[in-house]
TrEMBL record:
A Pfam short name: BPD_transp_2
One Gene Ontology term, aspect cellular component: plasma membrane
Membrane topology: Multi-pass membrane protein
Region Disordered: start-end pairs: 1-31
Keywords recorded for this protein, A-Z: Cell membrane, Membrane, Transmembrane, Transmembrane helix
Membrane-crossing segments per the record: 41-59, 71-92, 99-116, 122-143, 150-170, 190-213, 244-267, 298-317
Molecular-function GO term, any one: transmembrane transporter activity
Subcellular location per the Swiss-Prot or TrEMBL entry: Cell membrane
PANTHER family hit by this protein: ABC TRANSPORTER PERMEASE PROTEIN YPHD-RELATED-RELATED, RIBOSE IMPORT PERMEASE PROTEIN RBSC
The species this protein was found in: Streptomyces boluensis
Domain of life: Bacteria
Name recorded for this polypeptide: ABC transporter permease
Length: 347
């Protein structure tokens, strides 16, 4: 009698929000694809890129790039978009997308810096920024999870609406912040052991995001929904509610980022957060988060943010045109997607 075939043993989940490993046999990918797919190898590769950029900056502008003030500037600039990217990583891991993050940051920043809001002081500005961000995320989540709208369309509509509302609130003018306790957070006197407060907030959001994605049921459900929504539903996961929570989380990150931007700029403008959605998506992609969903990495996304911010800083120090900078970013994104397709074998 023939023995019944035993099911193949599935490998365990990847670190840092990864789904199950996909087979590399029979597709001509070769042994390197499996190695590049490993989270530790991917993370080390990103660190290597960051070190290479630091060497380039140190060689081209040693006195300026390696200065403590410049390193603090890089980390501070990375903090705002970094917080947004943490939320974006969750959304993309679930198989979604959020094109409205930049517009939500703009709307939250101008709403939190109106004269009426500033009458309530520090708490009023922080609370308003967070509530506006969460409110926009709630609208996105309801439209996508319960309204059946495609994430691309729903968040694109939010992008247009939030930008328009931000412009209407400000009437095209810059709203200056007059509250000393808010402005003082951006001053050097507020640094803790040489670390700007914005960087500390970014670090806290990163740690919390990593723990939630990798050590909680919420994170496992996020990966499951992104890997196969129907299988997740059959396994008892409320897919619609999970998606709603994810867009609420993205909105919360946008609200926090808006407050950080207010501290950094000392004002609120309807042009705030311009192209943040593209920067956040790009950072998540080069960090190893799959656009198709099912795998996400907070560590990789943060490294992606630092890589892009460092590139921007090097270009600025060397007086290179912003057009060249955008071309470089585009090339990096294309290379990252090609590597993803090679290592994960997405069709």
């Amino acid at each position: 009698m023939t023995q019944p075939a035993t099911p193949a043993k599935q490998e365990g989940p990847l670190l840092d929000g990864g789904g199950p490993r996909k087979s590399t046999s029979g597709d001509g990918a070769g042994p390197w694809s499996g190695r590049l797919f490993r989270p530790d190898v991917r993370t080390l590769s990103l660190i290597g890129v960051l070190v290479a950029l630091a060497l380039i900056g140190g060689v081209t502008k040693p006195d300026e790039f390696l200065a403590t003030s410049n390193v603090q500037l890089i980390l501070t600039q990375a903090s705002v978009i970094g917080v947004v990217t943490v939320g974006m990583t969750f959304v993309i891991t679930s198989g979604g997308i959020d094109l409205s993050v930049g517009a939500i940051v703009a709307l939250a920043s101008v709403w939190a810096t109106t004269v009426a809001t500033q009458e309530y002081g520090f708490a009023g500005i922080l609370f308003t920024a967070v509530i506006v961000g969460v409110g926009c995320g709630l609208v996105n989540g309801l439209l996508i999870a319960y309204g059946g709208m495609v994430p691309f369309i729903a968040t694109l509509a939010m992008l247009a609406s939030a930008r328009g509302l931000a412009l209407q609130i400000t009437e095209g003018k810059t709203q200056m912040v007059s509250i000393p306790s808010v402005l003082d957070l951006g001053e050097r006197d507020a640094y803790l052991f040489g670390i700007p407060p914005l960087v500390l907030v970014f670090a806290a959001v990163t740690v919390i995001g990593w723990l939630v994605l990798n050590r909680t049921t919420f994170g496992r459900r996020t990966v499951a929904v992104g890997g196969n929504a129907e299988a997740a539903r059959l396994a008892g996961i409320d897919v619609r509610r999970q998606r709603l929570y994810l867009y609420l989380l993205s909105g919360l990150c946008c609200g926090i980022a808006a407050f950080l931007l207010i501290v950094l700029a000392g004002s609120g403008q309807n042009t705030n957060g311009n192209l943040y959605e593209l920067d956040a998506i790009a950072a998540a992609i080069i960090g190893g988060t799959l656009l198709s969903g099912g795998r996400g990495t907070i560590t990789g996304s943060v490294l992606g943010v630092l890589i892009f911010t460092t590139i921007t800083n090097i270009f600025a120090l060397n007086n290179l045109e912003s057009a060249t900078q955008q071309i470089a970013k585009g090339a990096i994104i294309v290379a990252a997607v090609l590597v993803q397709r090679r290592t994960s074998h997405t069709p």
